[in-house]
From TrEMBL:
It comes from the Bacteria. The chain crosses the membrane at residues 6-28, 40-60, 72-91. It is found in: Cell membrane. Belongs to the UPF0702 family. Residues 93-161 form the YetF C-terminal domain. This is Uncharacterized membrane protein YcaP (DUF421 family). PANTHER family: UPF0702 TRANSMEMBRANE PROTEIN YCAP. The lineage of its organism: Bacteria, Bacillati, Actinomycetota, Actinomycetes, Pseudonocardiales. Keywords: Cell membrane, Membrane, Transmembrane, Transmembrane helix.
Length: 174
């Protein structure tokens, strides 16, 4: 029975778990907000590796000497708590929301690239053109507006206001 008790008993103080979880969540949120949207969209193998490494590096700061299931549950609860709090703040107060959450950025207007946004997002014209092709657009001149969205994906409004293809799903008829 003592083994079962040690499995669920807090091994470090509750306040320490909460403070560690809070500090780590807020620090990672700030860092992810600074790196830009491009890193958020569609994960490739190197992106998954990066996420795993960041999680592993953050784990030391998160759990300290924690060893029980309850410690982990409190930590997960703390992270979920802050996630909900920041979402609620962003919803309730739009000014705070602009600090916490990204807004779409205009990549193309009337067929012309916004070079300032391309530089900020570390994107080349070729990378944007690749994304345009995924939407069934061959020439940037066909684009009235294209945005990089907060999730890292690119959305397009065509000049003819036709519907672009859905990314990753080419219009193929057999």
């Amino acid at each position: 029975m003592s083994t079962l008790h040690s499995l669920f008993a807090l091994s470090i103080p509750l306040l320490e778990i909460f403070v560690r979880g809070s500090a780590t969540y807020i620090a990672l949120l700030a860092m992810m907000r600074v790196i830009g949207r491009r890193e958020a969209g569609g994960l490739g193998i190197t992106d998954v590796l990066l996420v795993v490494l960041v999680a592993q590096a953050a784990a030391v700061g998160l759990h300290g000497q924690a060893s029980s299931v309850t410690d982990g549950a409190v930590l997960v609860g703390t992270i979920l708590f802050w996630s909900v709090v920041f979402d609620a703040l962003a919803y309730r107060w739009p000014r705070i929301g602009r600090l916490i959450k990204s807004e779409p950025r205009l990549l193309i207007r009337n067929g012309e690239y916004n070079l300032q946004v391309l530089r900020r997002e570390l994107m080349t014209r070729e990378e944007v053109q690749s994304q345009l092709r995924l939407h069934g657009v061959d020439d940037p001149a066909e684009v009235e507006r294209a945005y990089i969205e907060p999730n890292g994906l690119i959305s397009i409004v065509r000049r003819d206001h036709g519907e672009p293809d859905e990314p990753g799903r080419p219009d193929v008829t057999l």
